[in-house]
Amino acid sequence: MKSLYAAFDLYPSAKGAATHISHMVQTLLEKFDKTILFVLGNEKIPKYQFEENFEIHRFTEQIPNYLMRAESYSTWLLEKIKQHNDIKICHYRDIWSALAVLNNDNKDYKTVFEVNSLLSIELPYRYSLIKDATLKKIELIEKFCLEKSDVIITPSETIKNNLVENLKVPDNKINVITNGADIPPKYKKPIDAPDEYIIYFGAVQAWQGIDILLKSMKGLDDFTNLKLVIISSNRKRYTKAYRKFTEKLELNEKVIWKHQLSKEELYAWIQHAKLSIAPLKANSRNIEQGCSPLKIFESMACGTTVVASDIPVVKEIVQNNISAKLIRPDRPAELSRAIRLLIDYPEENQSLSKNAFKIIEQEYTWKKKKNELKNLYDRLLRK
């Protein structure tokens, strides 16, 4: 029996999406005789890879226009799917993959739509000039894919509630399988790490609140040895605006930038940080749509206390003053005070990190999440 996983994402990469893809594919490999992965590629990685029970096909056309690239990918994927027989499960994480899977006239497989976000909400943050008419068309595609897919999985209750309330998806069609984390071994402190630092890691999109974090550093000027380390999953050029903002705030000596580190390097930086900051903004992307911040799970698994925005998607994972420190979003002064408190009171810091680590062990290991996904596949195949 074959399974298929498709994602309009570069793989592998330093982004959280790649981590999620990796664990989903591993689950399929454990469950099925053969798994085929369709993703995006570039000139640095092979267009095709093959192992005994695993194939990777990469779409490598470098089309600058996002929508034209998505359309071309979807056409490419449909043709690829038609070349494979005996596929029992098709699992996809975006509407462009879904269109190919669902529009196959000869399909004889079950379909799983993994909804981590909605393009109709996210695209305006990436492309500010996108037209309302285009977003309306994307909304129609989303509704089609949600309706025609056999099963929907989401990583948070917030996303599920949005799908049920706003898009009228039947509640019993949606399964919440949260993100998770591996508990890494202990790594040595990076050679170039400062004596004392807090950390932000992940993508640098507008909804992440990096500007709020940078502003909060101005309220910590008296912590002369404290640095902020920002480890971006994006290339250096994508952080240009934030670097300029850092200069404007006269924080060049306080902020250290790193880019696209390996998992081992990243874990070492997280483990030796005083705090890990997730200053998510209170906007439509985080509140109305929802998410499941992988950086929170991975920080907890590294034994590093999380300071995060007090919004629903975060409160699904941690509790304020028990397993994390939560502050009202979009308030640099409050974020400064929370950071100050946990540095001044290390025993409180340690208590939060210990409680958070126990939660990961009990509820959020990737092994547990994979088992939940396997059970979902079993139920779907029995129908």
Low-confidence stretches: none
Largest sheet: 8 strands, mixed
Spatially, the strands of the biggest sheet line up as 3-4-2-1-5-6-7-8
Radius of gyration: 21 Å
* Average residue-wise pLDDT: 95
Provide structural commentary.
The protein has 383 residues and is an alpha/beta fold. The protein folds into two domains: 2-180 and 365-382, Rossmann fold (3-Layer(aba) Sandwich); 196-363, Glycogen Phosphorylase B (Rossmann fold, 3-Layer(aba) Sandwich). 44% of the residues lie in helices and 19% in strands. It is built from 15 helices and 14 strands. The protein has helices at 16-31, 66-82, 95-102, 119-126, 132-148, 157-167, 210-217, 240-248, 263-271, 284-289, 294-301, 312-315, 332-344, 346-363, 366-382, and strands spanning 2-10, 34-40, 48-51, 54-59, 87-92, 110-114, 151-154, 174-176, 196-202, 226-232, 255-259, 276-278, 306-309, 325-327. It has an eight-stranded mixed β-sheet, with helices on both faces. α1 (16-31) crosses α15 (366-382) and α3 (95-102) packs across α5. 42% of the residues are buried. The model has no long low-confidence stretch (mean pLDDT 95).
